[in-house]
Specification:
By secondary structure, the protein is α/β, with parallel strands linked by helices. It has helices at 16-22, 28-34, 65-77, 86-90, 102-110, 142-153, 165-171, 217-226, 231-238, and strands at 4-10, 35-39, 53-59, 78-84, 133-135. The longest helix has 13 residues, at 65-77. It is globular, with a radius of gyration of 19 Å. The protein has two domains: 4-153, NADH:ubiquinone oxidoreductase-like, 20kDa subunit (Rossmann fold), CATH 3.40.50; 165-238, no CATH class. Strands 2-1-3-4-5 form a five-stranded parallel beta sheet, with helices on both faces. It contains nine helices and five strands; from the N terminus they run E-H-H-E-E-H-E-H-H-E-H-H-H-H. It starts with a strand and ends in a 9-residue tail after the last helix. It binds iron/sulfur cluster (SF4) (2 copies). One iron/sulfur cluster binds next to loops.
Length: 247
């Protein structure tokens, strides 16, 4: 059986999504029987785009000219282009300061050095190319990446999730941190798929998977207000992972 040809690229990001795949040590030997990773600069060299790919998994957002070129080249050579992680899907933490003056930010971080080269306000992949599927998360769950690749082996894209973290939190029968502990938990607004990882440990959801299609914003805001949080506080938290996500 012909092995699946996959390219894995990292744009502006922390590389955590790529690392999550590399951390699948138990599954990687079996995976490599069915998949060829031809372009994966973080894991193998030389990293040269060669021929057509069945899929490109792209981590990170766009903030530098060479990233645009790479993304366009991947789009041209792959059947499916998949945004992996919240930076690729929404801009993520790299886009946290998009509303501020970039030159001032550059000086605050690098001083007079031009080491960072030319940069622009970080943008998600869909701002520039057609994206065939999105796997959210900062980083995504291991299981989601493995399910994605298993689906690609059958020529299928993942079924998008639309429900919020609260759905999975209720299924796990957790104590509700928002209603019972008055903590600012973003579970009602955030896309599920992490099996309520944080609330299950007593930590409020920080919204790292971005907005859920099935959120109930009006009802959630009513509860946040009852608990003493205003829309500014909620908005600030939401926008850490997704600029433009407003309560
Ligand atoms: S703890 Fe958070 S995620 Fe869980 S049900 Fe309450 S609001 Fe939703
Ligand atoms: S509970 Fe929220 S912050 Fe935690 S992993 Fe899930 S989406 Fe991210």
């Amino acid at each position: 059986m012909k092995r699946l040809r996959i390219a894995i690229a990292g744009l502006t990001a922390c590389s955590g999504c790529q690392l999550t795949l590399l951390n699948c040590e138990a599954e990687l030997p079996q995976l490599l029987e069915k998949v060829e990773f031809h372009f994966f600069p973080m894991a193998c060299s030389p990293a040269i785009l060669q021929g057509a790919y069945d899929a490109a998994l792209v981590e990170g957002c766009l903030s530098m000219p060479h990233e645009h070129e790479l993304l366009l080249a991947l789009r041209d050579t792959c059947r499916y282009l998949i945004a992996v992680g919240t930076c690729a899907a929404w801009g993520g933490v790299a886009a946290l300061k998009n509303g501020e003056d970039r030159e001032l930010l550059r000086q605050q971080v690098y001083g007079e050095s031009r080491v960072a080269g030319e940069t622009s306000a970080p943008r998600p992949l869909h701002a520039v190319v057609k994206v065939d599927a999105v796997i959210c998360g900062c980083p995504p769950e291991k299981g989601e990446l493995l399910t994605l690749i298993a689906g690609l082996l059958r020529g299928a894209l993942p079924t998008p999730i639309s429900y919020p973290v609260c759905t999975e939190c209720r299924m796990r029968e957790n104590l509700c941190l928002l209603t019972e502990r008055s903590m600012l938990c973003l579970g009602p607004l955030t896309l599920g798929g992490c099996n309520a990882r944080c609330p299950s440990l007593g930590v409020p959801c920080e919204g790292c998977r971005g907005p859920a299609a099935e959120d109930n914003l009006a009802e959630a805001m009513e509860i946040y207000l009852q608990k003493g949080y205003d829309s500014h506080a909620v908005g600030e938290r939401l926008q850490r992972f997704c600029p433009g996500w407003k309560p």
